[in-house]
Structures
1.
Amino acid sequence: MTSNELNATNPLDYNLGIPENQADEYMFPALNAIRDNDPVFWSEANHSWILTKHSHIVEAFRDRRFSSAGSFLFGMEHHVDLNDIPNLVKYSRNWLINMDGKDHISIRKALMPVFSKASIDKYIPLIEEIANELVNEIASKGTVDYIMDVAYQLPARVITAILGLERKHLDDIKRWSDILVLTILPQHLSRENLIIGERAMAEMNELLLSEMDARRTQPREDLLTEFVRLVDTDALSLDEALATLQIVLVAGHDTTANSNVLALQALIKHPEQMAYFRANLDRAIDFMPELMRYTAMSATQFRIALEDIELDGKTIKKGDFILLSLAAANRDPSKFEAADKLDLTRDASAHLTFAPGFHLCLGHYLARLELSIYFKKLLTSFDNIIIPEQKTEQNGNFVFRGIKHLRVTFS
Amino acid sequence: MPKVTYIESDQTEHVVDVNSGTSVMLGAVENGIPGIDADCGGALACATCHIYVDDKWLDRVPETDIMEDLMLDCVAAARNLNSRLSCQIDVSNELDGLVVRMPESQH
């Protein structure tokens, strides 16, 4: 069967792009149903294939026919004259998430030592200091908008400190990140968003270039100095360095923030798991994979088929768009027993949150470390954490899921 | 079925049967042998399945290609002449009896 032969009114079909559909209560049952009934699914609603089985996605992550590079413009050319967005076109091509093959490997090779455990562990005292600071801010307020006041602040403060940027740039970085995320989600693509995105990228580059120049004459103990060294030793071109820094700023921001809030919600909904966490704070970093598996912040990845691919009796045609549903695969009962249950005692290391394969998230250790240091501090500081009854709004991003605001009370 | 001997950095030995066609990395992971992390699942993207191939077997394992060579520069422990990424070596009847050692750390 190919996409054209399938019935457009399939009751299993499910539009991932609609923000309300991304809420737990709709998303998990819908994706579980697709996985259990038709795991390699042509979705008319999304004009894409949706892969939902753990084993299929593990293979796709390591199969070069599932291309990341093919999708780098995300259809921008349908909305705008590409000459009007030169920066977006130039740099998004150099984002690791949009690359394949040798270029991809050579950039990864340059960056891996920078993001290795040994390099990142140097920042533990700094992350602890920021976690303390946030917990003190929470204590002084009692009730907070957890997303804006805490969850965004943690990765934003950590990443700016690690890069060596001053905090006065935080608001700009948040604004640039929010805009740039909109330029890579097909349902948000519009001329207006792309033009604003172009301006955001130009502003971001201006800051990064001037900061890099400053370090060229006066090196410091920070990540920007590392990037200057990589450029000056020809390990990275200047464009590759800028593109990677853009991704570090954007990716290190939203994803960790959303993981934080979804994990907190999940722990509060499961008091017995919260109690287990509190009783085993020293193992906080070991609990992160299960929290990530269960909450599915990293819900979907895009790929494009470079050639016809036979999978489970279906033919994915060359050029077809493919959505890898990590949310469905992370709850695949053939991989995880009682997969719909949060269980901090399980070995969840096979979770797919960080896209294990060619595109394994470079910041995976930093994310786990940062969240575990923070949760340890948070749970040590507050005995009572209450999420009052309230309406929540999804962030509308089906790749990196999250919610917009959440009022939480701490004592 | 070919046998592979995995030796941890504390000298603990594990002798296991590994199917032909299965990578040395997967042979360790599927048998629960510690010392090989393989964060990227075998896609040549992380350098955390580093092993030292016993000298006696060096000329029998397939040669390192350019992609593996690039990644080997990123291993956490010292890179030696017998350093390999275990995801890139498939077990075969010719490698029956292969001996590999794991470094102290992959990160």
2.
Amino acid sequence: MKNSLLKGLMVFLTMLCTSLTYSQDVSGTVSDASGPLPGASVLVKGTTKGAQTDFDGKFTIKNVGSNAVLVFSYIGLKSQEVNVAGRSNIKVTLKEDSAELKEVVVIGYGSVKKKDATGAVDQLNSKKFDNVAATSPADVLRGKVAGVQITSASGEPGAATAIRVRGNTSLRSGNGPLIVVDGVPLDGGDSSAGGADSGLGSSSAKSPLNFINQNDIESMSVLKDASSTAIYGARGANGVIIITTKKSKSKQPQLNLSTSVGISTYSSKFDVMSKEQYVATPGSLNKGGSYNWKDAILQTGVTRNYDLSYATGTDNSSTRISFGANNTEGIVKNTGMDKYTLSISNSTDFFDGTLKIEPKILYSAIKDNTTLLSDKAGYIGNVVASALYWNPTRAIYNTDRSYNVVADDYLNPVQLLNSYQDYTNTSKLLASINTTVKLNSHLKYNFLLAFENSNSTRKSQLLPTIQIKDAARATFDGTEYYGQADINNLNKFNKTFEHTLTYNKEFSPNFTLDLVGGFSYYDYNFDSNSITGKGFNPNQTNLIDDIQGSVGYLSGKFGPTSHRNEQELQSYFGRATANLYQKFILNATLRRDGSSKLGANNKYENFYSVGAAYKVIEAKEGLVNDLKLRGSYGLTGNQEFAPNSAIAYANYISPKGLGNQVSPNSDLKWETTLSSGLGVDFTLLNNRLTGSVDYFMKDTKNLIFAKAAESTQVAPAALKYVNLPGTLQSKGFEVSLAYKVIDSKDLTWDVSANAAFLTNKLVDFPLFVPVAEVNGQGLTGATAQALVNGQPAYSYYMYDFKGYDSNGASIYTDAAGNNVGLGNAVPKLVDKQPLPKLNLGFNTSVSYKKFDAAVSFYGAFGNYIYNNTSNALFYKGAFPVRNITADVANSVQANSDPNSPSTKYLEKGDFLRMGNLTLGYTFSGALLDKAKIKSARLFLNGQNLLLFTNYSGFDPEVNVNKTFNGVPSAGMDYIAYPKAKTISVGLNVNF
Amino acid sequence: MKKNNLLKVFLLSGLVFVGASSCTNLEERALDGTIQSGSSGTVDTHAFLNTAYNGLRSFQDQGNMYALSEMSTDAMVGPTRGGDWDDNGAWRQIHAHTWNAVHVHVRDTWNILLSNVYNCNQVIYNNGSAADVLEARFLRAFYYYHVIDFFGQVPHREKGSDVNADAEVWTRSEATDFVISELEAIVNSLPNRIANDASVANKDAARFLLAKLYLNKAVYTAANPAGPYTFAQADMNKVISYVDAISSNLASDYWDNFKPTNNTSPEILFSSKNVRSTSGGGLQSRWRMCQHYNQTPGGWNGFSTLSEYYDRFSSADKRRNYTDASIVTNFGNPVGFQVGQQFAPGGVTPLKDRNENPLSFTREVTLITTGNAIETAGIRAEKYIPDAADLGTPENDLALFRYSDALLMKAEAIARGGSSSATVASIMSTIATRAGVSAATADLPGIYAERGRELWWEGWRRNDMIRFGKYLEARQLKTSVSDAKYVLLPIPSAALLNPKLKQNDGY
């Protein structure tokens, strides 16, 4: 026994000695979850010896001690140490690193390690949103980043989306962040046309971000503070979202196929009275038939997604191509969206890597189908409104199967639905070529040339067989004809030219310097035209494709319009970043921007920022692992307002007269936002908890505002764009945390949460501006909100409802606050606002062996919604002719009590929604290998499965466009398209 | 090797594109319009003149100048009918005299009038043709007149003033003096009135407006806008001489002034022109604003007159109603005032309202209608005969100035001390004879009453009631005397951003 022990020890020592003296060549492959990983770093621990993996993820290091330890690392993945232990071939798979501080984040004109960032930057990588059904990239950002609020106008597929980074920075429209796609800043406008007005109100354009397939996105980086956005100068005040598309990472061909199918259904608890409830209500008009609004206009929507992508490469070149097809049916009949996308990207090195050329093409073709939905419908309503108000005892069809037509201001919802057709075809191409020349090892020249071309045609028609009061009709030869067709074309052609020089050098370990300087020129061209024909032969059904049939054609008068404008932006910019003693990072940015839109006397403005970070603790073991303080201060701008706002513009509206006059302002200058912020980034509890805390203040001055015509008289009857005195002050506090609850080989559980608190206030504001139009019968000229000095922007301003008197008449208050009737009521500021005071996001994911599950919640709190739907449709006087909600039917309101806008219709908008629930299973094993499948994952995805709210309307997440005098609205609900819940199942296969 | 590479690289990349992105001066162009700037000398003055003429169509709408002139008086009320016509209280406030400086019709009236002054200035200040400048000066006087009448203070910009600077402001009496001197400077140079088209600025229109200004001068120059007013004999003589200079005569039938072909009426001195199915303003409001949904032409079931006002017409008064065979066939009910049961076209089938009650307009009306009469309360009216050939874009022109008004102004001027060879009684008789009634008393109360009947719902009631000191008095649905401030409208609140404007007293 002892002998054997001794022998063993001898053998071991011999081996050890041998190994100590023996070195060998080690080669191997590094991969990540999706395959071989090129560009990963392999280092022999304790030495400077190492290698980088090639395109196939392969590496070779000569003369490695057989007992050496290799350190494998790659940006965004968890570093791994492997003992060579005598092996000559080592295969390593690197796992994703959720410790966000180690990430590299994309910033303007470059990238930075998150741990070295001086600005407030959050990045969302594709792992977080792959396989989530979404129609727009904006949808996947929702609830994921502190301080980013995404609000869809309605539940319609592809609906316009308001994105706000750190709240509203401006009073007029143009509060959306600058979107930069692969270095190309997009213009802030719509890509598709809004809906024509057939007499029942017009509708808004769809979200211009729909053109990107979210499966082509590698990362979305949100730049929130001046330190990070000042490089975009005049366009940085609302924050910047940088979208980076996927590239090939491998020389080995990779094929990915992903498909899913889902069904969407009505999810709201909202309802009007059923037939039984209606009949049981005193005074009802029982017409003997039967009707249910949900059966009339709603459907179960089927959604299908197919995505195919492949990536490949050679030693000098890499290419990725992807196709996407998405078909989304809405839950309102005749609505939906078909979207086809193509993305091609290539990167090729020439002359030993001195020249790199990266061409990219993103192409999309989208067909939007919609029905007669309108943002500002009058009392006749639209498809949804007429469906809600139709008497539930009236049959839709007569016994001969003809429509039961009641009146031209009381529309049969099914007839309206079937008489209306509306589709938009939008194609968009974003193509760029990025050329980089390595001038020496520290200096690079980069030239980006991009163009964006979009063409959109919207066609809509209302058949002549339906008659709507005062709408869609024309008289010819003394006879009135009905029907309307509208064709609306909208084209954009944008060009981007950017020259940049970047320089970086490590002068010593204690001093590194990064410099960026450049010149950019953007040219945005917009043109549109439209044609309207009214009054058709009652037998004609294809109005939009034979518009010659209209009365207009016969009388030589068609109702055409055409428009065109151009805006040019020209800028010079530079940024310097110094890293001192690997502890302090200092950063300064300057950008000089000029725009053709500004007044002749003020074309240019300088924007700047300074930022600093101090790494108090870095890469320590124990409870506190990293701690970084950062601060920033800077001036950014906002230029989202219409071209031709500063010049003495007028156009001809007949051979005789002029119209659309502009009140010129040659002094119009940039709106500027001075912002400052402090933040802490930290990693705690043995690298399990990472997070950031931010506090910021923003003061927006020289507010570009369309001043009311009355303040400029004698002048054209037009809004005048001026820089208002006064300041929009906002303050906010953001927290984001991510915690690894369990991190073992088989089981991982991550939890992350973010919260943003936000307030704003108008200071020294000289005007009282009513905003947020209220629509409906008897509501002409009514508004719900106001911009008032000393108050938060868009404060609700209306009669304060106090209940009903004994006669059922509404009681409001007078100026002194006494209870009075409508005749003596005065509107007041009710200290309630439509913008949430708190936005929350909560995400958690669990994986156990081959199973994975993720759930995300988001919510908004402290906001109020104005329920214009109730205001316009649900009051006692509407009954019994129109159906109403049970609550109103049972209230003590008198039939004659007018539905004046008041706090009666103001409701809390707080909600918490389960945005997404995903369950997945990843297959592996011999069967897959046989089929040459690298991986396959089956998943089940649910959207909007749970909603907690007290809001009485369809959905509290709503933002119907109620723009009034050029000021956008918030928190307004008016017959918004109801939100769906969707359950889908999908398969993702990698070959 | 490396240097060679760099050279190639430059040739291939950057240099190729340098030419494509050279610097720009960022000058903005109006690609789908024009730049109408005096400094660059590119103002299309004739187009601005036409635009100023089109501005007259704003007087055809039921709101703004029209509602403020009629609904603020004893002649018209815009009741809230359940969920209908609440419109944030806008109509009730006008009738009850409770409007304020953010009232939407006050604001829009200010903008319509003054932006058209601007359109006229573009012609006058930028070398328009001599004929165009004359017409523009008349139109500007017309718009200024209404600003004086409604608001008192009048902002103005003189030739060459900086558009970015605030406008200068005249007091009410300064503005009155200016407009009178302006009209007197051009009255004899203006063209004669064209037969069958009074829509072009003409001598008679200028004479009428001068008479109106002299008649109201006592009001416009009073120390206190609410009176008392002292009418100067010299001013009254001016009224008489300008009316005497007008070359016109009354139409044989009162309703010739309001039919679709009313351009042929010899009595209309100035009008806002409409062309059937082609171009026009909102004249359809003159029938739709009152008519019930179920009537023909279909209406908006809004405004009513008050029984107190309606009862001042005798049943013999031809101005109260008018009908003929085609009206019965096309519409079923007479035009003019409508009370009681209404009928479908043909005049036989009685109509029902939307609650299936008989469509019978009641004499009683309240500011907020209630009960079964929600839709039917109040006496309705159609001042214009609907154009059956196109109810939406009709042929009827809007009569802005009528000769019968001029005659009544002359009678009033005589009654207020002016001298004339004619007598008040003879004028009153002329007016009454056409109306088929006996003449009213030949004194100021008689003239006031006759103006109320002859010019009903034509946009002069507020002006008349103020001049006769009746405007603030309590009446049927305005049960207390109004504060004196209401004889003037407030300056719209946002207009006070021009510090030279001061809010009118009391607001």
